[in-house]
Amino acid sequence: MTDQHKPRLHGRVVAISIGAALGGFLFGFDSSVINGAVDSIQGQFGLTETFTGFAVASALLGCAVGAWFAGSLGNRYGRIRVMVISAIVFLASAIGSGFAFGIWDLIGWRVAGGLAIGAASVIAPAYIAEVAPATFRGRLGSLQQMAIVLGIFAALLSDQVLATSAGGADQELWFGLEAWRWMFLMAIIPALVYGIAALRLPESPRFLVAQHRDDEASRVLVDFTGEEEPAHKVAQIRFSLGKDEKRSLRDLKGRAFGLHPIVWTGILLSVFQQFVGINVIFYYSTTLWKSVGFTEDDAFLTSTITSVTNIVVTVIAIALVDKIGRRLLLLIGSAGMTVSLGIMAVAFSTATVDAGGDASLTGGWAMAALIAANAFVVFFGASWGPVVWVLLGEMFPNRFRATALAVAAAAQWIANFLITVTFPSLANMSLAVAYGFYATMALLSFFFVMTRVPETRGVELEDMRDDADAHTKEDAAAGV
């Protein structure tokens, strides 16, 4: 390919990718905003450890449902409409959670917010993959993860500021409302920003072609993607969509336990991403560090530092994903997470537990646990965090991309729920057992990537195949 025909990264495609990725900001914000409120919620409503875990994880059930239906809704009504609806539902959830009068009321609003987050988690990577040139698709797809970690940081920072201003998360702040309620109300701001941004985005050219709106698809390809031969690209898209343009879950049927092999690969990528325990760090970090000797203020600060670390390494991932490929980044991440989680398991095996069940670390093991936790975030943030979302957005064939992504994302939210809801009980049993389990999952993820995950760097969406075996064999032959 000569220099004059090499694709260029247009500013417009970067702008609309950022706009779509704002759904990831809602994802990250909603995931971590409860981090600073969990102890106050438990105390105010008199919850047990097990029910506290359920209350924290309740939004994830909504996320799974929202993700499951997002693909079919996106195929029927378009990517942009689903984004706008998600923003509206999330706005209502933020207001309802802030003014919740009981635990079941709060859980209901959190589940509603989860519906919006789940839908956005499917539509954003699908949309970005569908508008991005193949050469730059990895770094643009990684914007989803960057938005997620920025949302996590914003939630932790706002939680810290609100709790400090009130003298504690359970203390009144403004207008007779406790600080933890304001933590939820702060989500109104990103919900409004996301909704307004979504209204200004062009529709996905793949969706437009599926709707026989070829002229509009051509304009988007030229104006935003920089496509020089839009008619040829539209023809490629139409061919890859197949004859039956009505999309449903039936498109996913295949020979591997009822599904196409590539769909199982996507599902397992999602499950492993959660089973390494990353969200335990962000959902329970404040409680976790308090339990090993930090004050509330110190714990908030530690959580914020961890979040900033996540942002920095995501930038590194964005720089590398289109240069060294998806598989190598995942393999490096799996190896690093296995070691760091193993160190955390060993460190917490030395903890002493008082009569109230609170664990404490002393001496070198406390520092080792802190360093290992942040090393874990580094390896995850530079690999499995962004790369899984990139792969889920691009690895499936056009004819069932949104549907397969919806199923994989639903599996991710279910796995997220299982990890989140079981952590309090595992922590009560032994933090060493909890982190030992996550280390084992990280080790298994390494071998999974080696054998099942295709390299999609530089591959056009129209050339994606439904057979993961074929991809991985070709990758192995090429030495990838």
TrEMBL record:
Q: How does it sit in the membrane?
A: Multi-pass membrane protein
Q: Which UniProt keywords apply?
A: Cell membrane, Membrane, Sugar transport, Transmembrane, Transmembrane helix, Transport
Q: Does the keyword Transmembrane helix apply?
A: yes
One GO CC term, this protein:
plasma membrane
Keyword Cell membrane belongs to the record = yes
InterPro entries in UniProt: MFS_dom, MFS_sugar_transport-like, MFS_Sugar_Transporter, MFS_trans_sf, Sugar/inositol_transpt, Sugar_transporter_CS, XylE-like
Annotated compartments = Cell membrane
Q: Which residues does the UniProt record annotate as the domain Major facilitator superfamily (MFS) profile?
A: 16-457
What the entry lists under PROSITE patterns is as follows: MFS, SUGAR_TRANSPORT_1
Q: Which residues cross the membrane?
A: 12-31, 51-70, 82-101, 107-128, 140-159, 179-199, 256-284, 299-321, 328-353, 365-392, 404-423, 429-449
Alphabetized GO MF terms: transmembrane transporter activity
Q: Which family does it belong to?
A: Belongs to the major facilitator superfamily. Sugar transporter (TC 2.A.1.1) family.
Task: Fetch the NCBIfam families from UniProt.
Answer: SP
Instruction: Spell out the protein name for this chain.
Output: Sugar porter family MFS transporter
Report the source organism. Demequina lignilytica
